[in-house]
Amino acid sequence: MSDTFKAIQVSRDDDKNQSVDIVELTEADLMDGDVTVAVEATTVNYKDGLAITGKSPVVRHWPMVPGIDLAGTVLNSRSNEFNVGDKVLLNGFGVGEVHWGGYAERARISADWLIPLPNGLTSQQAMGIGTAGYTAMLCVLALERHGVTPKSGPIIVTGANGGVGSVAIVILSKLGYHVIASTGRVAETGFLQELGASEIIDRAELSEAGRPLGKERWAGGVDAVGSHTLANVLAQTQYGGAVAACGLAQGFDLPTTVMPFILRGVSLLGIDSVMAPKERRLEAWQRIVEDLDLKKLEALTTTIGFDDIIHTATDIVDGKVRGRVIVDMG
């Protein structure tokens, strides 16, 4: 690498008007941290789209280099945990929000935020999974801890064409679950079936205000949508079931009642991927290596270059991106 490197920087003027630029930086510009990484791959998540478009107040430090995920090679380290040449992976911890993230060829970050790149994965494959896939696995682990098994009944996955939803379908189907995929793009039915969905329903069935309790249709769910969708998923979860909630694509409100909880014993499992402890991260990534079909991952993944990040971020917020997006920084 040269002394300078490319980065995407989001800035805001005194009137809080946001701008996005491709800039040249040096290592002296980087924020504090004890490990410097040559970023080999990153990805475009919904949160990254919000950061770049400014459609939601994701960025909390200005200027910001977005990118909540990154994978690459350690260039230098003041940590006893990582050495020069180690392959590493990062998800969350406010990177891309309060600390400069993956949309640069180099990143300086805390060793506490990193985990070793799992054996058997390249940097690009890890970013094909990214926070979305890692969050999907956290949801699956939460459902398993609650006792929801393939024998319990179907699992609903909302936002099925998105990053979390598509990876959740692949994982759950491999584990033997009957997966019901809820999507606003019913034309993608064939794609979702290839991933492993057994049934497809139109998101319109769930996206409007519904009854406090409905017919018991599934044993559990993975919801990345929130709002009325999550309320309806809860209202139609069978007795003793559970729903793992990890997103707010429709909204952060939850217009529900206590009825599913007190009459059917339904549990709402909150999933946080940003600050999850290292032990849980390592468990999730190990299970990803074991339970994610990498051939199906390839089928739901698109690879772009650095110069395509900004318009892809806009597309993901507009619902025009299906599956996962890898940014190959090479």
Descriptive overview:
By secondary structure, the protein is α/β, with parallel strands linked by helices. It has 2 domains: 4-117 and 300-328, Medium-chain alcohol dehydrogenases, catalytic domain (Quinone Oxidoreductase, Chain A, domain 1); 131-270, Rossmann fold, CATH 3.40.50.720. It is built from 9 helices and 15 strands. The strands form 3 sheets. Strands 3, 4, 5, 6, 7, 14 and 15 form a 7-stranded mixed β-sheet that branches. A 6-stranded parallel β-sheet has the order 10-9-8-11-12-13, sandwiched between helices. Helix 1 (46-53) packs across helix 9 (309-317), helix 2 packs across helix 3 (163-174) and helix 2 crosses helix 7 (278-291).
Strand and helix layout:
Blueprint lengths: L3 E9 L5 E9 L8 E9 L2 H8 L15 E9 L9 E5 L14 E4 L4 E3 L6 H24 L8 E3 L5 H12 L4 E5 L5 H7 L3 E4 L15 E6 L3 H9 L1 E9 L13 H5 L3 E4 L7 H14 L2 H6 L1 E5 L3 H9 L6 E5 L2
Parallel strand pairs: 8-9, 8-11, 9-10, 11-12, 12-13, 14-15
Antiparallel strand pairs: 1-2, 3-4, 3-6, 3-15, 4-5, 5-7
Keywords summarizing the entry:
single chain, 330 residues, alpha/beta, Quinone Oxidoreductase, Chain A, domain 1, Rossmann fold, seven-stranded mixed sheet, six-stranded parallel sheet, 9 helices, 15 strands
